[in-house]
Amino acid sequence: MVQLRECEKHGPFRGDKCPICGDEGKFLLNDWELTAISRMLTGILRHFPEKFGVRLDEHGWAPIYEIVKGIKRKHRRFRWLKIKHIIALVLTDDKGRYQLDMENKRVRATYGHSIKVDLSDLPTEGIPDVLYYPTTEEELEFIQEMGLRPGDRKWVHLSKTYKDAYIAGRHRVDDPLILEVDAKGAIEEGYQIYAAAKTVYIAQEIPPKFVKMAEKQEVELSPEELERIEEEKRRRERKLQREKERMERQRSKN
Question: Structure pTM?
Answer without folding.
Answer: 0.86
